[in-house]
Amino acid sequence: MSEEDKTLDWFVDKALDFIKENRGFELELPGGENPLVVGSGNAYYTGRAAYRFAGRRFIHAEDVQAKEEIDKRAGELTGLVVVSASGSRDIIEVAKHAVANKIPVHSISCNHDSELKQELGDKLDQKHVPTPSEKESPTVNTVTYGMMLYGVTHECPEAIRLEIEKIRRPEKGYNRFEAFSMLFPDKMLEISRMTQRKFDEIFGRKVRVISANITNFLHGAAVHDEENELYVGIGLEKKYLDNFGADNRRFHVPLPGYFGPLGYMMVSYSVIGHMQRDRKDFSFLKSIKDYPERERDWIRPEL
Known about the structure:
This protein starts with 7 loop residues before the first helix and ends in a 6-residue tail after the last helix. The chain has helices at 8-21, 41-53, 63-73, 91-100, 115-120, 143-153, 157-166, 189-203, 214-221, 238-241, 261-279, 283-288, 291-297, and strands at residues 35-39, 59-62, 79-83, 105-109, 124-128, 179-184, 208-213, 229-234, 250-253. The chain is of the alpha/beta class. The protein is built from 13 helices and nine strands. It is 44% helix and 15% strand. The chain folds into two domains: 28-128, 3-Layer(aba) Sandwich (Rossmann fold); 155-286, Glucose-6-phosphate isomerase like protein, domain 1 (Rossmann fold), CATH 3.40.50.10490. The strands form two sheets. The chain has a five-stranded parallel β-sheet with strand order 2-1-3-4-5, with helices on both faces. The protein has a four-stranded parallel β-sheet with strand order 7-6-8-9, sandwiched between helices.
């Protein structure tokens, strides 16, 4: 497989290898009894899933709203927890704002020498998450966020791989469809949001996609049914999936009841990779090459 033809399921396979090699990694979630957990993109949802699965009390906000939450809750927050694979970008100013309000700052990051650490020094308590020496392509973030979740849930990588290996393509493959609805149990709301973002990154505007937990899907998203739409249920009870589309437009991916957020993340990402292969769409890694440079050139609003 060429460097540019690697699909998301390839990254899932490598991530599961690394998790297996680092079995036993423990992520002690910081922030005290009432932290504000913040991040951007899928880091935000990873943080939410980790704290919720651990049964921790917490408040959460995306980075663009974090300063507002700090201003409203400064007296009650026991810490700011920044979830970020790189420990960089817009979150720096949020962390500085917390320091100014005398709120302890913690981070969950895969980068020992992060920009956040450079800026805050000993004012930052950094929880380091191991990753391979060969980094993933920008925004792929499968092993990074996967390790964060594993450090809390300790799900079995072999069991996850076994379920992935059971997945078969829909009849005649994914490439005969132009729209997809990927549906999750309500308990996996954060993973459904992560999957939607991954669809956006992988396919952009070329494919019409909805990824949602079942209750949110029923709030309006289920109104339209396209003849070329495939409904994919990830660990969703079959009785829910049977409400949508025709028989040949439903694809059920059953999962064991003990599966947690890491398993759901890896399975759904693998399905997206299968879609890439069937559609022969390898544009993501080709497009990502110059993306970091373009992103730096864009005007970024003050937070």
